[in-house]
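Here is the promised in-class demo. Please do not try to memorize the tokens; focus on the logic of going from shape to residues.
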């Protein structure tokens, strides 16, 4: 999986994968209104770390992965404020749900896109990432995250600390 990658790339990918797992746990548990404070803290901190380390790669042109990192770093402060400063009260509950799930989607976007660069068969059917197979893959992921966001907005009502 990591052969041919630099140590920096390996660490970045590992942090990214670590960020996705607790993010999925938090997302999956939102309908039960559990706070999952530990899982959420790991998700938020590793998501921030993966977005920050993404800027350690050489800059050749503005790639979608870097755009995702920029958006994530703009959205994450809202997630942090909503959860920790405003304790998900009132409007901040909805802002937390939307921004947490958005940053998780941005984390998932890159591993879904990456195989189209690295796997020869996928690269052959979508060499520019504007072909239907790539667009369908990303659209399916986006639709799933949008549906999960609406569900979480309806069902996530944690006890405030």
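The designed amino acids, position by position:
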């Amino acid at each position: 999986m990591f052969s041919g990658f630099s140590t920096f790339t390996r660490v970045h990918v590992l942090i990214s994968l670590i960020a996705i797992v607790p993010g999925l746990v938090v997302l999956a548990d939102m309908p039960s209104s559990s706070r999952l404070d530990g899982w959420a803290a790991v998700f938020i901190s590793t998501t921030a770390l993966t977005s920050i380390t993404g800027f350690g790669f050489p800059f050749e042109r503005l790639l979608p992965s870097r755009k995702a990192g920029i958006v994530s770093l703009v959205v994450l402060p809202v997630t942090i404020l909503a959860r920790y400063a405003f304790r998900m009260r009132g409007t901040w509950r909805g802002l937390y749900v939307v921004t947490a799930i958005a940053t998780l989607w941005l984390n998932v976007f890159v591993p879904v896109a990456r195989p189209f660069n690295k796997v020869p068969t996928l690269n052959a059917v979508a060499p520019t990432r504007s072909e239907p197979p790539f667009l369908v893959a990303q659209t399916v992921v986006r639709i799933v995250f949008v549906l999960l966001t609406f569900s979480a907005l309806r069902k996530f009502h944690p006890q405030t600390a």
